[in-house]
Amino acid sequence: MPSAKVLPLHPRRSARAKPELTFALERFADIAPELPDLFVRQWRELEDEDYPLAVDWKAFYAHELQGSLLVSVARADGKIVGFIFALFLPTLNHATTLHCLVERFWLDPAHRGGWFAMRWFRDLIDEARERGAKRLLITENIKFMRGRMAFFRRLGLNPAQATFAMRL
């Protein structure tokens, strides 16, 4: 029987491993107390400080009660490190067609890289199909678009619309 080949350890590769990331669908009401600090961190990363962060908590609860809110939470060591919030609604021009609109998503920068986000979003796409959505829409901040275009394309998404903005 041949002996197993032993490979030398490389110091750069043997750095402390990141905690295992998991994701699951969770109730908004259960995680709401943990969200304010994470929302602030996402808002600061987007550098959208010209506009105050004013979360409409009542709307989150209302959508959850209506069954139109999906919450997927990423955790590391039991702590929330990311979220995807999606709404399942028809649009004004397609009243008979259910759309899945990803309202906001964020993953702590310390946990980015690797294939976690790909698995996480594929799970979201599967869930959207199971719930009967016919179209998935994700709005992305233009300054992050270049870096995420390949990611979205790997998921099967294609640019469909453009949003233009103006400060008033």
Description:
The protein is an alpha+beta fold. The chain has a single domain (21-154), classed as Aminopeptidase, CATH 3.40.630. The protein has five helices and five strands, in the order E-H-H-H-E-E-E-H-E-H. The protein has a five-stranded mixed beta sheet with strand order 1-2-3-4-5, sandwiched between helices. Strand 3 and strand 4 form a beta hairpin. The chain is globular. The chain starts with 20 loop residues before the first strand and ends in a 14-residue tail after the last helix. Residues 1-17 have low confidence and may be disordered.
- Let me know the number of strands: 5
Q: Architecture in CATH?
A: 3-Layer(aba) Sandwich
General shape: globular
Tell me, what is the CATH class?
Answer: Alpha Beta
Question: By CATH's scheme, which homologous superfamily applies?
Answer: Gcn5-related N-acetyltransferase (GNAT)
- Give the helices and strands as they follow along the chain: EHHHEEEHEH
Helix content: 25-40%
> Biggest β-sheet: count, sense, barrel?
5 strands, mixed
